[in-house]
Amino acid sequence: MNVYPRSLRAAIAALVMVLAGPAFGDEEPAPIEHLKGQGFEVTDRFQAPGGLIGYVGRLDGKPLAAYLTPDGEHMVVGPMLDGNGRNLTRPRLPGRSGEDASEEAWSRLENADWFVDGAEDADTVIYTFTDPNCPYCHRFREAAAPWVDAGRVQIRHIMVGILKSDSPEKAATILDSADPAAALLRNQNQFNDGGIAVDQESVARARERVQQNNRLMREMGLRATPVIYYRDEQGQVARRQGMPRPSQLPTILGSPRPDS
After folding, report:
1. Do 55 and 129 share a domain, yes or no?
2. Domain limit, last residue, from 48, 66, 92
3. What is the tally of structural domains in the chain?
4. 143 shares its domain with 117
5. Is pLDDT above 80 for 140?
6. How do residues 176-228 score in pLDDT, each as one tens digit?
7. Fewer CB in 10 Å around end: N or C, the chain?
Protein backbone atom coordinates (compact mmCIF):
# COMPACT_ATOMS: atom_id res chain seq x y z
CA MET A 1 0.00 0.00 0.00
CA ASN A 2 1.38 3.42 -0.93
CA VAL A 3 1.44 5.62 2.17
CA TYR A 4 2.23 8.89 0.43
CA PRO A 5 -0.13 11.33 -1.33
CA ARG A 6 -0.75 10.70 -5.00
CA SER A 7 0.99 13.92 -5.94
CA LEU A 8 4.25 12.60 -4.47
CA ARG A 9 4.16 9.02 -5.70
CA ALA A 10 6.25 9.58 -8.80
CA ALA A 11 8.83 11.52 -6.84
CA ILE A 12 9.14 8.91 -4.13
CA ALA A 13 9.29 6.10 -6.68
CA ALA A 14 12.26 7.83 -8.26
CA LEU A 15 13.51 8.84 -4.80
CA VAL A 16 14.78 12.16 -6.14
CA MET A 17 13.10 15.52 -6.45
CA VAL A 18 14.91 18.22 -8.36
CA LEU A 19 13.58 21.62 -7.44
CA ALA A 20 15.20 24.98 -8.01
CA GLY A 21 15.52 27.15 -4.97
CA PRO A 22 17.78 29.32 -2.85
CA ALA A 23 20.69 28.08 -0.80
CA PHE A 24 20.54 28.00 2.98
CA GLY A 25 19.28 31.15 4.63
CA ASP A 26 16.56 32.38 6.91
CA GLU A 27 13.93 30.54 4.86
CA GLU A 28 13.91 26.82 4.26
CA PRO A 29 15.29 25.76 0.85
CA ALA A 30 12.69 25.49 -1.89
CA PRO A 31 12.49 21.66 -1.94
CA ILE A 32 11.54 21.57 1.74
CA GLU A 33 9.13 24.46 1.32
CA HIS A 34 7.52 22.49 -1.50
CA LEU A 35 7.06 19.46 0.73
CA LYS A 36 5.72 21.65 3.53
CA GLY A 37 3.22 23.02 1.05
CA GLN A 38 2.06 19.43 0.53
CA GLY A 39 1.44 19.10 4.27
CA PHE A 40 4.85 17.89 5.49
CA GLU A 41 5.23 18.78 9.18
CA VAL A 42 8.92 18.90 10.10
CA THR A 43 9.73 17.60 13.58
CA ASP A 44 13.53 17.45 13.38
CA ARG A 45 16.40 18.73 11.23
CA PHE A 46 19.89 17.20 11.46
CA GLN A 47 23.24 16.81 9.74
CA ALA A 48 23.21 13.53 7.83
CA PRO A 49 26.07 11.53 6.27
CA GLY A 50 27.40 12.60 2.88
CA GLY A 51 26.93 16.28 3.56
CA LEU A 52 23.15 15.97 3.41
CA ILE A 53 20.70 17.72 5.71
CA GLY A 54 18.03 15.41 7.04
CA TYR A 55 14.44 16.42 7.69
CA VAL A 56 11.99 14.10 9.40
CA GLY A 57 8.37 14.63 10.26
CA ARG A 58 4.87 13.60 9.26
CA LEU A 59 2.91 13.77 6.05
CA ASP A 60 -0.79 12.97 6.38
CA GLY A 61 0.03 11.58 9.83
CA LYS A 62 2.63 9.15 8.51
CA PRO A 63 6.39 9.34 9.18
CA LEU A 64 8.45 10.75 6.33
CA ALA A 65 12.14 11.55 5.85
CA ALA A 66 13.72 13.84 3.25
CA TYR A 67 17.39 14.62 2.65
CA LEU A 68 18.57 17.90 1.15
CA THR A 69 21.73 17.97 -0.97
CA PRO A 70 24.51 20.45 -0.03
CA ASP A 71 23.51 22.88 -2.81
CA GLY A 72 20.05 23.22 -1.28
CA GLU A 73 18.42 22.60 -4.64
CA HIS A 74 17.81 18.85 -4.67
CA MET A 75 15.97 16.54 -2.30
CA VAL A 76 15.94 12.77 -1.80
CA VAL A 77 12.78 11.33 -0.23
CA GLY A 78 12.91 8.03 1.68
CA PRO A 79 15.16 6.03 4.02
CA MET A 80 18.96 6.27 4.08
CA LEU A 81 20.91 2.98 4.20
CA ASP A 82 24.57 2.45 4.99
CA GLY A 83 26.91 -0.02 3.29
CA ASN A 84 25.61 -2.86 5.46
CA GLY A 85 22.00 -2.19 4.59
CA ARG A 86 21.25 -0.69 8.01
CA ASN A 87 18.39 1.80 7.98
CA LEU A 88 19.82 5.06 9.37
CA THR A 89 16.53 6.91 9.04
CA ARG A 90 14.23 4.72 11.11
CA PRO A 91 15.54 5.71 14.58
CA ARG A 92 14.91 9.37 13.78
CA LEU A 93 11.34 9.02 12.52
CA PRO A 94 8.67 10.36 14.89
CA GLY A 95 6.49 7.81 16.65
CA ARG A 96 2.79 7.64 15.96
CA SER A 97 -0.20 5.45 16.72
CA GLY A 98 0.03 3.08 13.78
CA GLU A 99 2.76 1.14 11.97
CA ASP A 100 5.07 1.95 14.85
CA ALA A 101 8.34 0.08 15.37
CA SER A 102 9.68 1.91 18.41
CA GLU A 103 10.43 1.53 22.09
CA GLU A 104 6.94 2.81 22.79
CA ALA A 105 5.49 0.02 20.65
CA TRP A 106 7.71 -2.54 22.40
CA SER A 107 6.48 -1.32 25.77
CA ARG A 108 2.87 -1.72 24.67
CA LEU A 109 3.60 -5.27 23.58
CA GLU A 110 5.31 -6.09 26.87
CA ASN A 111 2.12 -5.06 28.68
CA ALA A 112 -0.23 -6.87 26.28
CA ASP A 113 -2.05 -10.16 26.90
CA TRP A 114 0.36 -12.75 25.51
CA PHE A 115 1.54 -16.26 26.33
CA VAL A 116 5.02 -17.76 26.18
CA ASP A 117 5.94 -20.21 23.44
CA GLY A 118 9.50 -21.37 24.12
CA ALA A 119 12.05 -21.30 26.92
CA GLU A 120 11.54 -18.84 29.76
CA ASP A 121 15.26 -18.02 29.75
CA ALA A 122 15.67 -17.71 25.96
CA ASP A 123 18.17 -15.07 24.87
CA THR A 124 15.83 -13.72 22.18
CA VAL A 125 12.25 -12.56 22.73
CA ILE A 126 9.92 -11.69 19.88
CA TYR A 127 6.26 -10.70 19.79
CA THR A 128 3.79 -11.74 17.14
CA PHE A 129 0.13 -11.02 16.51
CA THR A 130 -1.31 -14.44 15.70
CA ASP A 131 -4.71 -15.38 14.28
CA PRO A 132 -5.63 -19.08 14.63
CA ASN A 133 -6.91 -19.13 11.03
CA CYS A 134 -3.78 -17.51 9.57
CA PRO A 135 -1.77 -19.98 7.44
CA TYR A 136 1.23 -17.65 7.39
CA CYS A 137 1.24 -17.57 11.20
CA HIS A 138 1.52 -21.35 11.14
CA ARG A 139 4.28 -21.24 8.55
CA PHE A 140 6.23 -18.76 10.62
CA ARG A 141 5.92 -20.93 13.74
CA GLU A 142 7.08 -23.95 11.74
CA ALA A 143 10.04 -21.99 10.36
CA ALA A 144 10.96 -20.76 13.86
CA ALA A 145 10.72 -24.24 15.40
CA PRO A 146 14.49 -25.00 15.30
CA TRP A 147 15.24 -21.84 17.29
CA VAL A 148 12.37 -22.39 19.73
CA ASP A 149 13.18 -26.07 20.25
CA ALA A 150 16.85 -25.21 20.87
CA GLY A 151 15.84 -22.84 23.66
CA ARG A 152 17.19 -19.79 21.86
CA VAL A 153 13.91 -17.99 21.11
CA GLN A 154 10.80 -17.21 23.11
CA ILE A 155 7.80 -16.23 21.02
CA ARG A 156 5.17 -14.19 22.83
CA HIS A 157 1.93 -14.73 20.96
CA ILE A 158 -0.74 -12.03 21.11
CA MET A 159 -3.82 -13.93 19.98
CA VAL A 160 -6.29 -12.03 17.82
CA GLY A 161 -9.41 -12.98 15.91
CA ILE A 162 -9.69 -10.98 12.68
CA LEU A 163 -9.55 -13.28 9.66
CA LYS A 164 -12.67 -15.45 9.86
CA SER A 165 -15.92 -15.49 11.80
CA ASP A 166 -14.67 -18.24 14.13
CA SER A 167 -11.22 -16.70 14.64
CA PRO A 168 -12.20 -14.95 17.93
CA GLU A 169 -13.64 -18.20 19.35
CA LYS A 170 -10.58 -20.23 18.41
CA ALA A 171 -8.27 -17.52 19.79
CA ALA A 172 -10.21 -17.50 23.06
CA THR A 173 -10.07 -21.30 23.27
CA ILE A 174 -6.29 -21.22 22.87
CA LEU A 175 -5.81 -18.35 25.33
CA ASP A 176 -7.94 -20.00 28.01
CA SER A 177 -6.38 -23.45 27.74
CA ALA A 178 -4.17 -24.83 30.50
CA ASP A 179 -1.19 -24.78 28.08
CA PRO A 180 -1.80 -22.15 25.39
CA ALA A 181 1.46 -22.92 23.54
CA ALA A 182 0.48 -26.59 23.23
CA ALA A 183 -3.05 -25.59 22.16
CA LEU A 184 -1.58 -23.33 19.49
CA LEU A 185 0.46 -26.23 18.09
CA ARG A 186 -2.62 -28.49 18.16
CA ASN A 187 -4.48 -25.90 16.16
CA GLN A 188 -1.56 -25.72 13.75
CA ASN A 189 -1.39 -29.51 13.35
CA GLN A 190 -5.17 -29.73 12.81
CA PHE A 191 -5.33 -26.71 10.52
CA ASN A 192 -6.25 -28.65 7.37
CA ASP A 193 -9.10 -30.32 9.29
CA GLY A 194 -10.59 -27.07 10.58
CA GLY A 195 -8.26 -26.33 13.47
CA ILE A 196 -8.78 -26.63 17.19
CA ALA A 197 -12.24 -27.47 18.50
CA VAL A 198 -13.93 -24.45 20.03
CA ASP A 199 -14.65 -24.62 23.77
CA GLN A 200 -17.61 -22.36 24.51
CA GLU A 201 -16.74 -22.10 28.21
CA SER A 202 -13.29 -20.84 27.26
CA VAL A 203 -14.89 -18.45 24.79
CA ALA A 204 -17.05 -17.00 27.53
CA ARG A 205 -14.05 -16.54 29.82
CA ALA A 206 -11.55 -15.20 27.27
CA ARG A 207 -13.70 -13.32 24.76
CA GLU A 208 -12.81 -9.92 26.21
CA ARG A 209 -9.09 -10.77 26.21
CA VAL A 210 -9.23 -11.42 22.45
CA GLN A 211 -11.21 -8.22 21.90
CA GLN A 212 -8.56 -6.26 23.80
CA ASN A 213 -5.85 -7.75 21.60
CA ASN A 214 -7.87 -6.87 18.51
CA ARG A 215 -8.14 -3.28 19.73
CA LEU A 216 -4.40 -3.12 20.39
CA MET A 217 -3.70 -4.32 16.89
CA ARG A 218 -5.99 -1.66 15.40
CA GLU A 219 -4.50 1.07 17.58
CA MET A 220 -1.03 0.14 16.31
CA GLY A 221 -2.23 0.49 12.73
CA LEU A 222 -1.94 -3.23 11.91
CA ARG A 223 -4.36 -4.96 9.56
CA ALA A 224 -3.01 -8.44 8.83
CA THR A 225 -1.20 -11.34 10.50
CA PRO A 226 1.40 -12.31 11.36
CA VAL A 227 3.05 -9.10 12.52
CA ILE A 228 6.39 -9.81 14.18
CA TYR A 229 8.24 -7.39 16.43
CA TYR A 230 11.88 -8.07 17.25
CA ARG A 231 15.16 -6.32 18.01
CA ASP A 232 17.70 -6.08 15.23
CA GLU A 233 21.48 -6.45 15.50
CA GLN A 234 21.75 -2.90 16.85
CA GLY A 235 19.11 -3.58 19.50
CA GLN A 236 16.56 -1.36 17.78
CA VAL A 237 12.92 -2.36 17.62
CA ALA A 238 11.99 -3.65 14.17
CA ARG A 239 8.82 -5.01 12.64
CA ARG A 240 8.02 -7.53 9.95
CA GLN A 241 4.53 -8.07 8.56
CA GLY A 242 3.78 -11.32 6.79
CA MET A 243 5.81 -14.49 6.43
CA PRO A 244 9.55 -13.66 6.46
CA ARG A 245 11.84 -14.99 3.77
CA PRO A 246 14.20 -17.76 4.94
CA SER A 247 17.16 -15.39 4.65
CA GLN A 248 15.48 -12.99 7.10
CA LEU A 249 14.90 -15.55 9.85
CA PRO A 250 18.39 -15.38 11.44
CA THR A 251 18.02 -11.61 11.84
CA ILE A 252 14.50 -11.83 13.26
CA LEU A 253 15.32 -14.78 15.53
CA GLY A 254 18.66 -13.44 16.68
CA SER A 255 21.08 -16.15 15.53
CA PRO A 256 21.89 -18.58 12.70
CA ARG A 257 19.66 -21.64 12.37
CA PRO A 258 20.67 -24.01 15.20
CA ASP A 259 20.86 -27.13 13.05
CA SER A 260 22.63 -25.54 10.09
Report:
1. no
2. 92
3. 2
4. yes
5. yes
6. 999 999 999 999 999 999 999 999 999 999 999 999 999 999 888 788 999 99
7. N
CATH number reported for the structural domain that contains residue 240 in this entry: 3.40.30.10
- Determine, yes or no, domain membership for 98: no
Asked if residue 248 and residue 123 are part of one domain, the reply reads yes
Task: Render pLDDT for 85-109 as a digit per residue (tens, 0 to 9).
Answer: 888 888 777 654 334 557 888 999 9
Query: For the chain, what percent of residues have pLDDT higher than 90?
Result: 59
Position 259 in a domain: no
Which pLDDT does position 187 carry in this prediction?
A: 97
Share of the chain above pLDDT 70, in %: 85
Instruction: Read off the pTM.
Output: 0.64
- Tell me the per-residue pLDDT of 34-56, one tens digit each, with 9 for 90 and over: 888 888 878 788 899 999 999 98
Q: Please tell me the distance from the alpha carbon of residue 217 to that of residue 100, in angstroms, as a whole number.
A: 11
| 39: CATH | 3.10.450.70
Kindly state whether residues 77 and 172 are assigned to the same domain: no
Checking if the pLDDT of 230 tops 60, the result is yes
H/E/C letters for each residue in the chain?
Answer: CCCCCHHHHHHHHHCEEECCCCCCCCCCCHHHHHHHHCCCEEEEEEECHHHCEEEEEEECCEEEEEEECCCCCEEEECCCECCCCCECCHHHCCCCCCCCCCHHHHHHHHCCCCEEEECCCCCEEEEEEECCCCHHHHHHHHHHHHHHHCCCEEEEEEECCCCCCCHHHHHHHHHHCCCHHHHHHHHHHCHHHCCCCCCHHHHHHHHHHHHHHHHHHHHCCCCCCCEEEEECCCCCEEEEECCCCHHHHHHHHCCCCCCC
Is 162 in the same domain as 244? Answer: yes
